[in-house]
Write the structure tokens for this entry.
Amino acid sequence: MAGGISRIQGLLGRLMENIAQLQTSFHESVEKQAEMSVTKERRELRKKFKAEQEEMLKSSKRERSNTEELFTDITRYARQCLEEVKREKDENLKALTREEKLKNSKELQEIITKTRNDTIAKLSSCSESQLKEISENPDLVLTWAPRCASCGKESEWLCFCEACKVTRYCDENCQAADWERHQNTCVGLN
């Protein structure tokens, strides 16, 4: 019996060793399983994270593309507005220029008409010698004051012939003295 007890004790000792090894192996196996499980979860989370990241990147690209299109549209619209403003400004400037030219043309025509009338009035009150002098030097008309058709005196304050309203005289005496020569012209003017 003593041999059976020691044999049982030896078996118990080996059993204890085997149990200790099994426990260690079990703990290692559980840790590996836990690690694998965590790794699996990590992989799943990484896949999910990567998918979300790719989706966000695509979304960001779409937003960027939309923003660029918006900037392009704004730039195009701003250019159109600037061109329209420039066109309106040019049209207004052309209209103002036309109005100014028309106004200047009317003023010039008035000046020409007044100058022509003044020149005709000056020339009609001239004697033949004065007309000859003027034809030789036309610039005299611009600086020259009217002269009496009878005596030739220069003055701004000469009287017109009552009949033709063109020929000028100093007074009634000069008009009476020139009547014989003037009456043919005066009748022709009437």
